[in-house]
Amino acid sequence: MTSSRPFNFSAGPATLPEPVLRQVAAEMLDWHGSGMSVMEMSHRGKEFGAILETALADLRELLAVPSNFRVLFMQGGGLGENAVVPLNLSRGGKVDVVVTGSWSRKSAAEARRYADMQIAAEGDGRSIPRDWRLRDDAAYVHVCSNETIDGVEFHDLPHLANGVPLVIDCSSHMLSRPIDWGRVGLAFGGAQKNIGPAGLTLVFVRDDLLGHAMDICPTAFNYETVAANNSMYNTPPTFGIYVAGLVFQWVKQLEYAGRRGLAAIEQRNIDKAALLYAALDGSGFYENRVDAGCRSRMNIPFFLKDESLNERFLTEAKAAGLLQLKGHKSVGGMRASLYNAMPLEGAQALVSFLKDFEARHG
User: Fold this and answer.
1) What is the C-alpha R_g of the chain?
2) What is the pLDDT of residues 186-227, one digit of tens each?
3) How is residue 260 annotated by DSSP?
4) Which residue segment(s) compose the domain that 111 sits in?
5) Is the pTM of this model over 0.90?
6) How far is CA 223 from CA 90, 141, 219, in A?
7) Residues 172 and 290 in one domain
8) Exposed end of the chain (fewer CB within 10 Å): N or C?
9) How many domains does the chain have?
10) Which of these is catalytic: 58, 96, 150, 169?
11) CATH number of the domain within which 339 lies
């Protein structure tokens, strides 16, 4: 894949596949001869109905979603789900949260408003804690399977021997690799990392977890209601679903290293991350502080040893066509997000710039 566009390393809203953007542009005024933009369609009409059903079918195929899971297209983002999940699953009882970084810490704080929330384990933002104090009578255990800010990722989901459902916030690695559904009761994430524009939220919920919402749960956020209405109880984010559907088709057709579809995406993500981590680890000028065993493939924070050079680094990176590399304000430094739509050439360009900048300023 080659392009004259800059490489956008934003953590989200994030880069989208160029073929998808071009198709969206081509169909903006007239979707498939309908005479309407998708943004103008009735969500009850047959045109959007076809878009919705195709997107759902493609997503189920890509992630091999079992038949006993419902796929919901919702709104509110990951932060919204931090409230929606306990409203649906906690029954006002016990919730255990494993804190591995900034987003799971936010999840814990929100769950405390609706349930007896316990922090079952807390890491240092650089690793996954080892000893978890789990309660057998908890309604669920929550983990953020990829911390967008801190760059900590569960490469293998935990197996909860006590049978308590595992809830994962997979916002920033959803569709970047397979999900072990046998270990998951519910998965959720905002679309604006790997899937589409901001405004669409995806929820995968096991059938047996439906029907337990608290009385105070808004009807539009009750998973049972949303599932019963095929994500159409209220007007869904139609344009976001349309773009996501095009991304699903792009992933299905992608070929890389002799693989196709999700397997191709996963291998390309592994290769991109390995390339960047090798450059950082091989340098005395930059550092990544996350334990090697749980480093994120999607979000790679790093720091210049001489942080007085940060602004110069960002200015020169932008001039070189490398955008949005500034780290989150809560941790500082730099961050490169290597989501699905980032081609291998983007990682290679960043590595080349890192080496050049070190040679000139190290």
Assistant:
1) 21
2) 999 999 999 999 999 999 999 999 999 999 999 999 999 999
3) E
4) 21-251
5) yes
6) 13, 18, 9
7) no
8) N
9) 2
10) 169
11) 3.90.1150.10
Task: Give phi and psi for 340, each to the nearest 5.
Answer: -50, -40
The H or E element spanning position 70 is strand 69-74
Whether 193 is catalytic is yes
Which among 103, 150, 250, 272 is annotated as catalytic? 103
User: Mind listing the pLDDT tens digit for each residue in 301-338?
Assistant: 999 999 999 999 999 999 999 999 999 999 999 999 99
Q: Is residue 284 scored above 50 in pLDDT?
A: yes
β-pair type (146-147, 152-153): antiparallel
Which amino acid makes up residue 303?
A: F
Provide the pairing of β-strand 201-206 with 69-74: antiparallel
- Cβ atoms of residues 83 and 63 within 8 Å: no
Backbone angles phi, psi at 168, to 5 degrees: -120, 130
Q: Which helix (H) or strand (E) holds 355?
A: helix 344-361
Domain end (from 251, 270, 297): 251
- Based on the residue annotation, tell me whether 103 is a catalytic residue of this protein: yes
Q: Please confirm, yes or no, whether 169 is among the known catalytic residues.
A: yes
